[in-house]
Amino acid sequence: MDKIESIARERLSALFDGGVFTELDALRTEREEPAAVICAHGYVEGQAVCAFAQAPDVNSGVMGKNTAGKIRRIYSLAAKTGVPLVGIYDSSGVYVDGTADSLTAYGKLIAASAKLSGVVPQISVIAGVCAGSAALLASEADFVLATEKAELYLTPPFGTDAAKPETLAKAGVIAAVCKDDADAAEQVKSLLRKLPANNLAGAPVAEFDEPESACTKETLLTGLADAGSLLPLYEAYGTSVETALATVRGQAVGIITTCKSDDALTADDAAKTARFIRTCDAFSLPVLTVLDTQGFAADTEAAKTGSLRAMTQLCGAYAEATTVKIALIAGEACGAAFSAIAGRGAGSDYVIAWKDAAIAPLRPEAAVEFLWHDKLRGAADVNAKRKELAKEYKQTLASAEKAAQIGTVDAVIAAGESRQAIVGALELLEGKRVSNLPKKHSNIPF
């Protein structure tokens, strides 16, 4: 093994099955030195994959025009063959010679990545320093992973907390922080097991084991997904939403829950959900949304935090997605949150509700004030009376049974029947077909 290429080779060997891969453009040079990147193709978990790894031990991994051309070649090959692309980043930057050569080279790479987006899965692994234009390129991927010692930043100052993976995970840039290179390779493999090779391939199907426990409020994810199949993503981002890839009876799905906390959905929660559903939709992975939320953040907060814009993005992402969308109402689903996320038409193809769910235009407490204010008059204990009326409202006008009677939900079930109901819905919607109006793309605010 050539010492100056050892780090990149070791990282690729950890990724490909049996450490075996075929290198491309092995003899390409940059300013009379080997190009500081290794490009290769091979198999990962039996799936054909293209990959590149920057070589920090070749002139500090500096990028030049020829090195960028080498990476563009692997992008082109991934596009032609319809296989996932993995990029491992570790470079101190670009050649600084006073010209715009490096900027043009990176611009072409960014364009190549954008063209490939939504065609094949792209996964970035930040294994060292990734700065400037490289940070833009890496962050275009469907999933960005980083090791604990990595640094990712657009502009100086570098070496600060802002460049640390933990900070960027909280900002929603990084999907998962990995302990080291080996852990990152395993995380990439876990992702590839649940992603199709490209946008024309079907969702992966694998052998499975039934969940060890029935679905309850406390075991929502583990009660719905096949045993051991859950792959949580963006755990540090958003306070009320969880997102994960998993399998249900062996079929790969994306799962979104709004049950992480009792808080209202924030701008981060909305952006996290919108990004995740767009990723699932790009590769036709069915999306299962479990809803129990008091709704979107108050307007006063929205004006300060940009929540309204983020909520609009969320609504658009659900409405635009043509993949299979199934909603499970596991608690409260009131107001705009239900319309955007779970309501038939814009939000979901099939809506299931637990027997004790509440589905209404207003939260029970607000509905009592608006609809039954007269019943509060003269009460010896107004707060106690309000709670009593709110409970009555949930059991009558806002009940799951009432929602089913007026055609808002498709099925009302006990919590323990959730997995069986979802499996049935997945089977029903397997052949879903959608015809959209011809257009270049939607123009929902980013």
CATH superfamily of the largest domain: 2-enoyl-CoA Hydratase, Chain A, domain 1
Strand content: 15-25%
Rg, nearest Å: 24 Å
Mean pLDDT: 91
Oligomer: single chain
CATH topology-level name of the largest domain: 2-enoyl-CoA Hydratase, Chain A, domain 1
Percent helix: 25-40%
Q: How many domains, as an integer?
A: 2
* Coarse structural class: alpha/beta
Which parts are unreliable, with pLDDT below 50 for 5 consecutive residues or more? none
How many helices? The count is 16
Structure commentary:
- The chain is an alpha/beta fold and 446 residues long.
- The protein has 2 domains: 3-193, 2-enoyl-CoA Hydratase, Chain A, domain 1, CATH 3.90.226.10; 220-357 and 399-431, 2-enoyl-CoA Hydratase, Chain A, domain 1.
- The protein contains 16 helices and 19 strands.
- The chain has helices spanning 6-15, 65-81, 101-116, 133-139, 165-170, 181-193, 220-224, 267-282, 299-305, 307-320, 336-342, 364-371, 373-376, 382-395, 400-405, 418-428, and strands at 21-24, 29-30, 33-34, 37-44, 47-54, 85-89, 122-126, 129-131, 143-147, 151-153, 176-178, 231-233, 242-248, 251-257, 287-293, 325-334, 350-354, 358-360, 411-413.
- Strand 5 (47-54), helix 2 (65-81) and strand 6 form a beta-alpha-beta unit.
- Helix 2 runs parallel beside helix 3 (101-116) and helix 3 (101-116) packs parallel to helix 4.
- The radius of gyration is 24 Å and the shape is elongated.
- 48% of the residues are buried.
Short structural summary:
The chain has 446 residues and is α/β, with parallel strands linked by helices. The protein has helices spanning 6-15, 65-81, 101-116, 133-139, 165-170, 181-193, 220-224, 267-282, 299-305, 307-320, 336-342, 364-371, 373-376, 382-395, 400-405, 418-428, and strands at residues 21-24, 29-30, 33-34, 37-44, 47-54, 85-89, 122-126, 129-131, 143-147, 151-153, 176-178, 231-233, 242-248, 251-257, 287-293, 325-334, 350-354, 358-360, 411-413.
